[in-house]
Amino acid sequence: xxxxxxxxxxxxxxxxxxxxxxxxxxxxxxxxxxxxxxxxxxxxxxxxxxxxxxxxxxxxxxxxxxxxxxxxxxxxxxxxxxxxxxxxxxxxxxxxxxxxxxxxxxxxxxxxxxxxxxxxxxxxxxxxxxxxxxxxxxxxxxxxxxxxxxxxxxxxxxxxxxxxxxxxxxxxxxxxxxxxxxxxxxxxxxxxxxxxxxxxxxxxxxxxxxxxxxxxxxxxxxxxxxxxxxxxxxxxxxxxxxxxxxxxxxxxxxxxxxxxxxxxxxxxxxxxxxxxxxxxxxxxxxxxxxxxxxxxxxxxxxxxxxxxxxxxxxxxxxxxxxxxxxxxxxxxxxxxxxxxxxxxxxxxxxxxxxxxxxxxxxxxxxxxxxxxxxxxxxxxxxxxxxxxxxxxxxxxxxxxxxxxxxxxxxxxxxxxxxxxxxxxxxxxxxxxxxxxxxxxxxxxxxxxxxxxxxxxxxxxxxxxxxxxxxxxxxxxxxxxxxxxxxxxxxxxxxxxxxxxxxxxxxxxxxxxxxxxxxxxxxxxxxxxxxxxxxxxxxxxxxxxxxxxxxxxxxxxxxxxxxxxxxxxxxxxxxxxxxxxxxxxxxxxxxxxxxxxxxxxxxxxxxxxxxxxxxxxxxxxxxx
Length: 623
Hints:
Number of strands: 0
Distance between the termini: 86 Å
Number of helices: 23
Radius of gyration: 42 Å
Largest sheet: none
Helix content: over 70%
Structural class: mainly alpha
């Protein structure tokens, strides 16, 4: 019964017919998409194999299906593939375009200069020609944009917009044809028209032209007079317009242009016109500019597939904005009252802590959100650190940094933040460096004085660092704990040694006036005090080493015991090398006896093996 076979043949014929029709439709669409000049002659498409031979054998399920016919594309017909095609296209469409525009403008400028030199054209005609040429070039550029030549169109627009600004500048500054108000209004109209074209054409480059023209307007129309209020109101309007623009368009690079223009105009005005009686108004505008660019990173849109360097623009802008604003305020306010400046730094710290929380509250890109969060937090901590030396003096700066380190350490461990731990360690390092290299203490009382109090705060914070780090199990934390313990012991020993030195220095100072009259007796007394001081150093180091050894045995800490051994070794060197030659006989005897007793005691403890060190060593070798 051949009914199934006949049905199969009918289905095959229908499929062959459909395939042929689709193929012809695709060919016709591609030919219509090509320009008429370059359109190749139409040729009848070859029918699919199934259409030529309907009775061809039907492929089985194991055979491959026939491949889809490869249709030639318009690009393969019109532009043959060449290795240097991209370079040739770039040279022809971009480089020659710019060179041609430059040559044309140079030729026109030479002609106009020749005409001006021969008085063929008066001032009014010159300005009129410039304005009309600028408008014509902008209109002409739209024709190229409509045909898909956007790069060429934007180049023409740039030339036309530049011609408009320069013509208006010449009408005001060079020929005095129009007043400043009219020139400003006309330049503002050019800026607004350029911004409108940027929005209509969705072109960031045109928005950049508008910003460049907008910030150039005050420079072009400057008369050398101090017009702070009008200038900064105008700049604030430009900045707010940029902020609104980047809220709806992912044009982050405009923020850099706007900030750079604002900063240059501000610095130019400040260097020429600022005086102390303008403090309030100037700080007010600086604060307004700061607020605009502090908000900007939170509201800007991020384009998809943005280059990494442009994706970091908001973070870089936030950091630069904070630093520049603080420096501006510091220069103006610090001379008035540094206490106000310290509170100002703390207020900025609070603002950036709030901004860091807002970053998490908003739905930003995950990577950008994390960078901004940590950057705002870092800036806040930086302002807190700066406020301490501004407000405090002498050793109180050091204590302030130690307290800041302790607070940051406590908060970091409460919220499990390694970022804050890093800043805590940074503040701690600042305090230690200042304590050892900068602070100069004048003490009149032994032990209970400001120097020992400052060292005690440092030792307490280092102890907290070691304790928090020891609770963690990762290797970096263990390293931090070890360094903190060593630093703690070194600072404590330095503090006690300085107390010994100051105690004997005060005794020596009482005998120095006697050197003028009874120099022999005074010199002998000074030598005796020096011997006592050197002996006290040895005794202090031995006692501290013994204390560390006891703690190491009680805590079963090899790390602490090694510190004790190193300190005792240093003491041994001092006793055998220095004390033998410098100390009197009685002090020499006491030094050696005390050192010998200490060493024998430690040796006896190790020989008794109270810590079972030998058994641990045997176990390790057996393994």
